[in-house]
């Protein structure tokens, strides 16, 4: 008895894995609902002339999103598959490496969290090193050196040469 | 002859040390980017947008055009030496180019490609000079309804002509249009999709969307499937061509632009379709039965075609303000950054900028040949860059760019969220180009449509009351109904045969 439930469970999981593209349909559907709710909550402008106002295009886009979500779901359930994008550095025969993706995302988000606190040069260097580490680089002397050099040169280039201000942070305040 | 004078003035302005430097930087950077995996010219221009905030528009566009042309040749280098095209424009080049390299004729393949690119770009730019002012003059009188029709055509064409699934193309377009809706309505100032947030009231910056979809999405996607085993590029000497190779190559070189330019100028995805057509044409015309085993004609023709298609793309972008490739779309966003609206009026209002840009296209073409013919083996060394550094660097410059736009952390978070969407799109085969076109053209399309309706006082006839608009809608209908038509015609011929 428990055996059959287990196989049922695993087959359900299998089914979901094979039809994971339905996630895109859910995303499109959610976007469509979001656009439509936003459109209907907009107060109707009395200055609007003719049939087309600020609500028309969102209305069309929202409905189209829901329509495409439904059509795509039908296509996926009938066995349609979106072709994953290939590339020079991409090996589609291997399963998705979620650990690398998560580490890379963490490096990126750490930069967003730190940049206003410790300044651009330091926080960007940490991101570069973290991203290189996530992607498998394990050279503990060369990696941080490249990271610091890159972020310092970029900081000086943008802030001084191009006149695009970046936060120096406490470190640059001391220097 | 008026445009000849303007072009000469343009040369005068382009041969300043600063502009020559920008052209050289663009060409070198473009070639490097073409060689490097993961980065294409569209991503490169998007990443460079923040750098150009402090520069003048002329210099920036000279550099961008150099990147576009340079990327065409750079992509061919990896196609030939590694059998992995750096750009979609170079996919066809690998078919004959890589077998040539394997037979020890890599130097000849590179030379056929470099000279082919030179001739293609030269012929394409001459066509641009001859045709662009005329097109701009014809288009000066087109009204809001015509613009709307043309943009609608661009939407339908990029979703229908490219990619294997129309449905997924439309899904991508709609994602772009939705992102374009965020912010204040341009005519009434009402908030749309801002959810009360002040940061979103200005709308999502096009730079952020482009950088997120191209750079962040690509880095995350590569991270999920990073190839651990490396292909070894075939070592190669300095490119050169013997007499017999020249005899086989010159006709394909000249035929290439004839195919490439027109296809580049229509919204059919730039270089992919014409390079394939050029390959098919050369295969049919070839006297040598070497195709599939390294025929030089199969490199020379498509390469000249690819470069000429870039000129065709620029022609449409400058005269109509209509981007037909991802790179042109990002360049259009760059024009908007500088407060310049490409379109028929550009040739009147920004005459000096346009002609300096065109003159620098000629200069860039020559620079490309002079630099790349001897440097090809060195470019190939770029392939050895460790992948962790490459993608960490892409992510690094993506966040620099997004942060430099407004110095705001919200932009970094937005970059990440849209980057995740870009990741999902790559995973499930949603093409990126329609989303980028949607976010860049969507707001202007809405504006033109509402202007047209204001002029007609709300009467829907206002959208179709010009012969130009009607013609464009006929083409749109044809593209939309094409699968149906083909099915009907196919059935009839089958019946006929039976």
Automatic annotation (TrEMBL), chain A:
Transmembrane segments: 21-44, 56-73, 101-132, 144-166
Pfam family, one: TctB
Superkingdom field: Bacteria
Keywords noted in UniProt: Membrane, Transmembrane, Transmembrane helix
Domain DUF1468: residue ranges: 24-167
Keyword Membrane: yes
Keyword Transmembrane: yes
Identification of the protein by name: Putative tricarboxylic transport membrane protein
Taxonomic source organism: Tamaricihabitans halophyticus
Lineage of the species this protein comes from: Bacteria, Bacillati, Actinomycetota, Actinomycetes, Pseudonocardiales
UniProtKB/TrEMBL annotation, chain B:
Domain of life of the source: Bacteria
Protein name: Putative tricarboxylic transport membrane protein
Xref: Pfam families: TctA
Keyword terms of this UniProt record: Membrane, Transmembrane, Transmembrane helix
Start and end residues of each DUF112 domain: 20-436
TM spans (from-to): 20-49, 61-82, 109-135, 147-163, 170-187, 207-224, 317-340, 352-376, 388-406, 412-441, 462-485
């Amino acid at each position: 008895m428990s055996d059959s439930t287990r196989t049922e469970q695993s087959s359900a999981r299998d089914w979901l894995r094979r039809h994971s593209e339905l996630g895109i349909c859910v995303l499109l559907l959610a976007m469509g609902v979001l656009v439509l709710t936003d459109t209907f909550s907009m107060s109707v402008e009395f200055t609007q002339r003719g049939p087309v106002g600020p609500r028309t295009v969102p209305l069309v886009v929202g409905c189209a999103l829901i329509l495409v979500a439904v059509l795509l779901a039908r296509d996926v359930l009938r066995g349609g598959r979106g072709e994953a994008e290939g590339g020079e550095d991409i090996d589609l025969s291997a399963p998705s490496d979620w650990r690398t993706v998560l580490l890379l995302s963490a490096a990126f988000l750490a930069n967003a969290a730190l940049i206003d606190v410790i300044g651009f040069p330091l926080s960007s260097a940490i991101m570069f090193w973290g991203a290189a580490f996530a992607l498998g680089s394990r050279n503990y002397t060369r990696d941080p050196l490249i990271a610091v050099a890159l972020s310092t040169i970029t900081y000086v280039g943008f802030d001084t040469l191009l006149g695009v201000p970046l936060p120096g942070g406490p470190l640059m305040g001391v220097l | 002859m008026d445009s000849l004078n303007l072009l000469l003035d343009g040369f005068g302005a382009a041969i300043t040390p600063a502009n020559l430097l920008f052209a050289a930087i663009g060409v070198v950077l473009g070639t490097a980017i073409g060689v490097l995996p993961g980065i294409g010219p569209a991503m490169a221009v998007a990443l460079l947008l923040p750098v150009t905030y402090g520069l003048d528009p002329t210099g920036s566009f000279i550099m961008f055009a150099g990147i576009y042309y340079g990327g065409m040749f750079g992509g061919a280098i990896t196609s030939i030496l590694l059998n992995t095209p750096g750009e979609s424009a170079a996919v066809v080049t690998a078919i004959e180019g890589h077998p040539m390299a394997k037979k020890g004729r890599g130097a000849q393949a590179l030379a056929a490609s470099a000279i082919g690119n030179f001739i293609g770009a030269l012929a394409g730019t001459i066509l641009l000079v001859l045709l662009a002012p005329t097109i701009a003059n014809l288009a000066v009188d087109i009204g809001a309804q015509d613009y709307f029709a043309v943009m609608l055509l661009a939407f339908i064409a990029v979703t229908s002509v490219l990619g294997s699934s129309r449905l997924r193309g439309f899904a991508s377009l709609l994602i772009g249009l939705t992102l374009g809706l965020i912010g204040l309505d341009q005519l009434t100032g009402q908030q749309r999709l801002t959810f009360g947030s002040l940061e979103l009231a200005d709308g999502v910056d096009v730079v952020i969307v482009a950088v997120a979809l191209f750079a962040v999405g690509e880095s995350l996607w590569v991270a999920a499937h990073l190839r651990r085993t490396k292909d070894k590029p075939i070592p190669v000497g300095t490119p050169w061509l013997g007499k017999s190779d020249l005899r086989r190559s010159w006709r394909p070189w000249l035929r290439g632009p004839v195919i490439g330019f027109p296809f580049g100028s229509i919204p059919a995805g730039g270089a992919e379709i014409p390079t394939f057509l050029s390959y098919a044409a050369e295969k049919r015309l070839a006297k040598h039965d070497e195709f599939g085993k390294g025929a030089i004609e199969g490199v020379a023709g498509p390469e000249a075609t690819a470069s000429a298609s870039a000129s065709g793309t620029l022609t449409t972008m400058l005269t109509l303000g209509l981007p037909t490739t991802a790179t042109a779309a990002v360049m259009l966003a760059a024009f908007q950054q500088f407060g310049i609206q490409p379109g028929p009026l550009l040739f009147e209002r920004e005459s000096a900028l346009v002609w300096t840009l065109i003159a620098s296209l000629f200069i860039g073409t020559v620079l490309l040949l002079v630099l790349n013919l001897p440097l090809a083996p060195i470019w190939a060394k770029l392939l050895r860059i460790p992948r962790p550094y490459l993608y960490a660097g892409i992510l690094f410059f993506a966040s620099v760019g997004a942060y430099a736009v407004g110095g705001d952390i919200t932009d970094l978070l937005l970059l990440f969220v849209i980057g995740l969407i870009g990741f999902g799109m790559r995973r499930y085969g949603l093409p990126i180009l329609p989303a980028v076109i949607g976010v860049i053209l969507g707001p202007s399309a809405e504006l033109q449509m509402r202007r047209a309706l204001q002029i007609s006082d709300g009467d829907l006839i206002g959208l179709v009351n010009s012969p130009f608009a009607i013609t464009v809608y006929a083409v749109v209908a044809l593209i939309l109904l094409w699968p149906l038509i083909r099915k009907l015609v196919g059935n009839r011929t089958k019946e006929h045969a039976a």
